[in-house]
Specification:
This protein is α+β, with helices and mostly antiparallel strands and 160 residues long. It has a single domain, classed as 3-Layer(aba) Sandwich (Protein Transport Mog1p, Chain A), CATH 3.40.1000. It is 19% helix and 41% strand. It has three helices and seven strands, in the order αβββαββββα. It has a seven-stranded antiparallel beta sheet, sandwiched between helices. Strand 4 and strand 5 form a beta hairpin. The longest helix is centred in the N-terminal third of the chain and has 16 residues. About 9% of the residues have low confidence.
């Protein structure tokens, strides 16, 4: 019976992986220097730099949500929001942008050896595209210099 559960779980993961990518419906593209690290079917993708000092995360929610709810739903724990503002991207598409510090759950990003889930600086953008909410985060070590290409990437979540 235990083997059957493992087989079913493996089959479900294969099926999710075959469903496409979170980037299929939007223009988001990770910049040079960021490589795919993890994916959860068509719902989430994580890219990291080789030195693991930075990561990009793109999440697609199944429905659209209010802009004001997106930061809270980002799951950045212990978030200290420094900047929060409504902006426009892709011509006339409403979005919310935030700069914060918090714990993201992305192991190893900016971590010292043996550290798990360190605090980091997070640039967050949330927007609605084609009935779905997309949340993009650029995570880097605390006080790390931001990569302009990564900042530009999270602002490029336009409908294809």
């Amino acid at each position: 019976m235990k083997i059957n559960r493992i087989v079913l779980a493996a089959a479900a993961l294969v099926a999710l992986a075959a469903c496409g990518s979170v980037t299929d419906s939007v223009t988001f593209k990770a910049p040079a220097g960021f490589a795919p690290k993890a994916s959860l079917g068509p719902f989430m993708q994580v890219w990291t730099t080789a030195d693991k000092h930075s990561a990009l995360v793109l999440v697609q929610m199944p429905t659209a949500m209010k802009l004001d709810d997106m930061i809270r739903k980002s799951n950045v724990r212990d978030a200290q929001v420094r900047v929060k503002r409504k902006i426009t991207i892709c011509g006339s598409q409403p979005a919310i942008y935030a700069e914060m510090t918090g714990t993201t759950g992305i192991a190893d990003v900016g971590a010292e050896k043996g550290s798990v889930n360190p605090r980091g600086d997070v640039d967050f953008l949330g927007t609605n595209v084609n009935g779905h909410t997309y949340m993009a985060m650029y995570v880097r070590e605390l006080k790390g210099a931001p990569d302009p290409a990564a900042l530009a990437a999270i602002h490029d979540i336009c409908a294809r």
